[in-house]
């Protein structure tokens, strides 16, 4: 069980190796890599790592390996799978 004492949206997803996902961001994005490896821009994150993305309006998340992630977006307007 996870208890959060504020308004929060938390999502999880499983993605296949060599796939990607485009996010349009209004404020910020916080992501935890549960398993696998991802790349956002020049930054990579592996199992157990976390990333916070700020001051970006759009990002492309590349899934280097089969990956599972937890995402806590702050006002994401939409996501598209490439």
TrEMBL record:
Residues 2-71 form the Quercetin 2,3-dioxygenase C-terminal cupin domain. It comes from the Bacteria. InterPro entries: Quercetinase_C, RmlC-like_jellyroll. Pfam families: Pirin_C_2 (PF17954). This is Pirin family protein.
């Amino acid at each position: 069980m996870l208890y959060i004492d504020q308004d929060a949206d938390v999502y999880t997803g499983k993605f296949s190796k060599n796939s990607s996902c485009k996010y349009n961001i209004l404020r910020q994005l916080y992501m935890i890599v549960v398993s696998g490896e991802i790349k956002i821009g020049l930054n990579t994150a592996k199992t157990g790592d976390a990333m916070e993305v700020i001051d970006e309006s759009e990002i492309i998340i590349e899934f280097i390996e089969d990956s599972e992630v937890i995402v806590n977006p702050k006002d994401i307007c939409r996501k598209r799978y490439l």
